[in-house]
Write a structure and sequence with these properties.
It contains six helices and two strands. The chain has 115 residues and is mostly helical. The protein has one domain. The chain has a two-stranded antiparallel ribbon. Helix 1 packs across helix 2 and helix 2 crosses helix 5.
């Protein structure tokens, strides 16, 4: 159940960001759910490989290169999904930053209290 809630939160965040960020287009709510699933799968499978391959440059830039890795994941998702497009790498960087911030806020709002 937690996985479904997190995917729906991510889909909602994608919808909100696509509405306000020029350069990001999204066709429908179903596409937003697909985008959330694909980004989650890419983060699970592709991102660790990219992080390991770019470890030296990530260390030199004190971790800032991870923003580029996140943008590559977003651009890869936009190339895999019809109905979702991100115009440039800079827009993808901004999209990934806003997505992380919005997901953090929404996850903290919907977090269950542990007793």
């Amino acid at each position: 159940m937690k996985l479904i809630i997190k995917l729906l939160i991510s889909a909602f965040a994608v919808i909100v960001i696509a509405k306000f960020l020029p350069g990001v287009t999204l066709d429908s709510y179903t596409t937003a759910i697909i985008v959330a699933v694909v980004i989650a799968i890419l983060n699970m499978l592709v991102k660790p490989i990219l992080v390991i391959l770019t470890l030296p440059i990530t260390i030199v830039t004190l971790g800032l290169f991870l923003l580029i890795v996140n943008a590559i994941i977003i651009k890869l998702a936009s190339s895999l999904i019809d109905g979702f497009s991100v115009d440039s790498l800079w827009i993808a960087i901004l999209f990934s930053i806003l997505l992380s911030i919005l997901q953090s806020i929404l996850n903290s709002l919907f977090k269950e209290d542990k007793k």
